[in-house]
Design a protein that fits this description.
With about 260 residues, this protein is α/β, with parallel strands linked by helices. The protein has a single domain, classed as Rossmann fold. The chain is built from nine helices and nine strands. The strands form two sheets. The chain has a seven-stranded parallel beta sheet, with helices on both faces. Helix 4 runs parallel beside helix 5. Belongs to the short-chain dehydrogenases/reductases (SDR) family.
C-alpha cells in the first residue's frame, strides 16, 4: 500500500499526532484535507508544508457539532471526488475525578471523542465502498483498553470507540474497508495541556510523563507503517503497554499497580 496520490482526510490536524500525520503524509505524496476547530493553526500548517499546496485543503470543523458533520463530510468528499483514508485524530482529554466532573463536560468529551469520530466515519464509508474500498484509522488510547484515575469520561469514550469500530469491522471489511484502531501511550504532544478539568476549564500544563513520552515523529511513523500493513490494532507505548497485557491476564494486580501510581 502506498499513500502517494491518495486522498487523506485528517481530523485534529492542527496539533499533536494529527499535525505530524499531515507532515509525513505530504512527504509521502498524499492529497490532504486538514480539519480541526483551529482555522489559523491549519493555515499555518499548510504554509509549513510548502510543496504542493494545491493538493492541501483546509476544512475547519468542530467534532462536537454533530448536526453539521454530514455536510462537512459531503464537502470533504466533493474536494477530490473521494476519500481514501480518514484519520480520526480529533479529540479532547480530561484531568478530573469523575464525581467532580460536570455532566455537560462529560457530554462534551463523548460528543468530541466518540460521536464525532463515529458520525464522520459513517458518512464517509459508503463513498469508500462505492469507490472500491478505503481505510478508517481511529486514534484511541491505551486507556481505551483499561481505566485509570482522572480519565473517567475520556477512558469511557475511548472504550466506546473500540466497541463500535471492532463491531463495524466485521460488517464492512468484506466491502473493502480497513479499520485500524491506534492505542498510543505517552506521546510527546500537548494533549495533557489541552485537557479539560471537571468544570470545563483547561488543565493548561504539561504532564511529566507526556514530556518524556515517545517523540510524535516516531509515533506517526509506526502508525503509518502499521496502517500500510493492514494492522487492526496498533499499540504504541513504552512500559505502559504492559498494562494492556496485565488487564487481560491479571486485572486485580493491575488494579493494585494503578492505584499506587494514581495517574497513568
Amino acid at each position: 500500500m502506498s499513500f502517494k496520490n491518495k486522498v487523506v482526510w485528517i481530523t485534529g490536524a492542527s496539533s499533536g499526532i494529527g499535525r505530524e500525520l499531515a507532515v509525513q503524509l505530504k512527504k509521502a505524496g498524499a492529497k490532504l484535507i486538514l480539519s480541526s476547530r483551529k482555522r489559523e493553526k491549519l493555515y499555518e500548517l499548510k504554509q509549513s508544508l510548502k510543496t504542493d499546496l494545491i493538493n492541501t485543503h483546509i476544512l475547519p470543523l468542530d467534532l462536537e457539532d454533530k448536526a453539521n458533520l454530514a455536510s462537512k463530510a459531503a464537502e470533504a468528499i466533493k474536494i477530490y471526488g473521494k476519500i481514501d483514508f480518514l484519520f480520526n485524530c480529533g479529540g479532547i482529554s480530561q484531568r478530573s475525578l469523575g464525581l467532580d466532573t460536570l455532566p455537560e463536560i462529560e457530554e462534551k468529551i463523548f460528543d468530541t471523542n466518540y460521536w464525532g469520530t463515529v458520525l464522520l466515519s459513517k458518512y464517509v464509508i459508503p463513498q469508500m465502498i462505492e469507490n472500491g474500498g478505503g481505510s478508517i484509522v481511529v486514534i484511541s488510547s491505551v486507556v481505551g483498553k483499561f481505566g485509570t484515575m482522572f480519565r473517567t469520561s475520556y477512558s469511557a469514550s475511548k472504550h466506546a470507540l473500540h466497541g463500535y469500530f471492532e463491531s463495524l469491522r466485521y460488517e464492512v471489511e468484506d466491502k473493502g474497508i480497513q479499520i485500524s484502531i491506534v492505542c498510543p501511550g505517552f506521546i510527546n504532544t500537548e494533549i495533557t495541556k489541552n485537557s479539560v478539568m471537571g468544570n470545563g476549564t483547561l488543565y493548561d500544563k504539561m504532564d511529566q510523563n507526556q514530556l518524556n513520552g515517545i517523540p510524535v515523529q516516531e509515533c506517526v511513523q509506526k502508525i503509518l507503517t502499521a496502517v500500510k500493513k493492514g494492522k487492526k490494532e496498533i499499540i504504541i507505548a513504552r512500559k505502559e503497554k504492559w498494562a494492556v497485557l496485565l488487564k487481560r491476564l491479571s486485572p486485580s494486580y493491575l488494579h493494585k499497580v494503578l492505584k499506587k501510581r494514581a495517574v497513568v
